Here is the input.
Amino acid sequence: MSDAREAEEPGTKADEPSAKAEEAGAEAEEPRRSNEGQDDGGRRKYGPLGTTLVIIPTYNEAENIKPIVARVRESVPDAHVLVADDNSPDGTGKVADELAAEDDHVKVLHRKGKEGLGAAYLAGFRWGIEHGYGVLVEMDADGSHQPEELPRLLTALKGADLVIGSRWVPGGRIVNWPKSREFISRGGSTYSRLLLDVPIRDMTAGYRAFRKETLEGIGMDEVASQGYCFQIDLAWRAIKAGFHVIEVPVTFIERERGESKMSRDIVTEAAWRVMSWGVGSRVNKVLGRKDSKES
Here is the structure.
């Protein structure tokens, strides 16, 4: 069973991004709209964002968790952080508990073992929704997602249902990646975009900000995909459900400490699942049936 330090209720009054967030967002390029055919020409009215919860899944990230949490707290002081630790043998959970004891904006979700990135995020989403958070953010523990760019995502979310921090739109970039990793990432996004017929440029991006209502509307309980494929799955579900998804440029920096969790099995799973979804969706269109939500 998973357990967590009890969170303070975010409160009834919605917390907007800080003034620092507003300033950073104002300087960002105009976000790219990924499903313009489904929005209402910019006339849609969005409610307040509410309190932000940044979910950081960890497995053997003892070296990284303290600095990344500190950067999040500095970049968006109003945000809360949830460390979802999969019982890391290197003591990451203990380090996170120490951070939580010192800062009431930091929470820890202790999970029973290594169950994958997707399962950790889903557990974090559910926990955050149960505790009244209005915005749920995905962020890696290794520093590849820059907390200093989070204000840009939150500002863009004021006019969207899901914001993706994208490496492959104008202004986005990667630092210190080998060509092989870039090929896999670019190729995976292109492959997914074509098979699933969606306009998102960076389908595998893991730096995202969701409104609570978006996660509630995409069938989280039916998501079974993991790892690399999990991000594709959630983006596709959001598009199919008619949510407004936009991409903003971010800089992705390869981790300096620890080991990447990427593996051949993760990539293979994604390729097969995406092919299955794409073929199934086209067959359903021909037969006049709705897409199944199972994944």
User: Anything to note?
Assistant: The first strand starts at residue 3 and ends at 4. The two ends are 24 Å apart (CA to CA). The chain has one domain: 15-287.
